[in-house]
């Protein structure tokens, strides 16, 4: 019955597509609206600012994803043929993968969106760049899925490394966040070099 549980992995598109769009808007959108400059004058460190923006995107993404997962499973329980419902609810590794991969996949989508948003000058550019970069990551559900539980466990182990990648990538995005460039359009290093030069 793998043809029944395999489409469940398509639900992972929800925490992939939604946060990338929101995160791509988070910095460049504020810049276009003129609300970024007051935010940059606050005593927040760059790490805190980026982490706050990531959390603001992650929270609604996970709430929406888990609500939709729950509604889907409820609809299967109420309206599906008993054999199909049994196949869905008795494939624990797939259901566990849905609930555990959602924050990991959303985290990667947020990091990609924030990185694009920090570098882009317009919201349209940020959204198109974010979609293009994210398409390299999610080219569809994992291939060869459902052959056996050992295969799924190995896939969970590999995907579990996404958490480490998410954290490191968020630090890289924090280093990319140049306050002076976002306000004036020039890099801070060039401005400092001009001040220091005789």
Q: What characteristic shape results from the CA principal axes?
A: elongated
Helix content: over 70%
Largest sheet: none
Residues in β-strands, percent? under 5%
Helices and strands, in order, run as: HHHHHHHHHHH
Residue runs with pLDDT of under 50 for 5 or more positions:
140-150, 190-198
Total number of strands: 0
User: How would you classify the helix and strand content by structural class?
Assistant: mainly alpha
What is the CA–CA distance across the termini? Answer: 75 Å
Mean of all residue-level pLDDT scores:
75
What's the tally of helices? 11
Radius of gyration, rounded? 20 Å
Task: Please explain how this structure is put together.
It is built from eleven helices and no strands. It is mainly alpha-helical and about 200 residues long. Helix 2 (about 15-25) runs antiparallel to helix 5 (about 45-80), helix 5 (about 45-80) packs antiparallel against helix 7 (about 90-120) and helix 7 (about 90-120) runs parallel beside helix 9. The longest helix has about 35 residues, at about 45-80. It is elongated and about 60 Å long. The protein starts with a helix and ends with a helix. Mean pLDDT is about 75; it is low at about 140-150 and about 190-198.
